[in-house]
Amino acid sequence: MRLFTFVILLVLVSCQNRDQKKEEGAAALVDENLQFQEKTLRGKKINVASVVGDSIDLSKRLLLVYSGYDCGSCVNAAFYLVKKVDSLAKSNHSVIVEIQSDKGRDQLRYKYQQYIYSDNDDLIRKQLKFIKTPAILSFDESGKIDEVYFPQDVQSINESLIQKFAPPN
After folding, report:
1. Has residue 119 got a pLDDT over 80?
2. Which of 7, 36, 123, 134 has the most CB atoms around its CB within 10 Å?
3. Chain centroid to CA 35: how far?
4. % of the chain residues with pLDDT over 90
5. Which residues lie across from 64 on neighbouring strands?
6. Number of domains observed in the structure of the chain
7. Has this prediction a pTM greater than 0.85?
């Protein structure tokens, strides 16, 4: 009986270690993919006029792109960062674009008072080769992407990250 119990415990422990290694491998693969996407997007220029109109220039601004299918904590973190940056800018420094989401519900849920644009045809993500969302993109003065951030949760947003996306004084 003791031998049988020992064998069962040994099997359980070995399975647990194998599952943990699989999870670590999957997390490393996700991190590698996000780093690749960040590197690929830097320096790229995109056309958002068909979604937000001709009057909005993305130079030195933030663009948040999110989908109704994104994880709740990720979208929550994205809105948190955008609102923090906008409050430091003392203006509407960010442009938010939703894809297949209920923007009225999102404005209430995240207490966001500014306009949220709709990209019903997924035009922005098509230009960006269908990046992971939510994504926060920062643009330089020439309108090229200079910073990319894929928010996961509010706890991962610190003061240095907020300052990184805040407009220069």
Report:
1. yes
2. 134
3. 13
4. 24
5. 96, 136
6. 2
7. no
